[in-house]
Sequence to fold (44 residues):
Amino acid sequence: MSDFNRGIMKFDYADRPVAIVLSAVLVLGSIGLLIWWGLGVAYL
Fold:
C-alpha cells in the first residue's frame, strides 16, 4: 500500500497520477476562485 492510499484518500488506485492531478486541480482551482472572488468583493 502506498502512502497516498491512506488518510483522506482511502480508495483503490488513489496513487494513480490521474487521481493526483485531478485532486490538485480541484484544490488549486478552488483556492484561485476564492482569491478571485475575494478581490472582486474587496475592490467593487
About this structure: Residues 38 and 44 are 10 Å apart (CA to CA). Helices lie at 17-42.
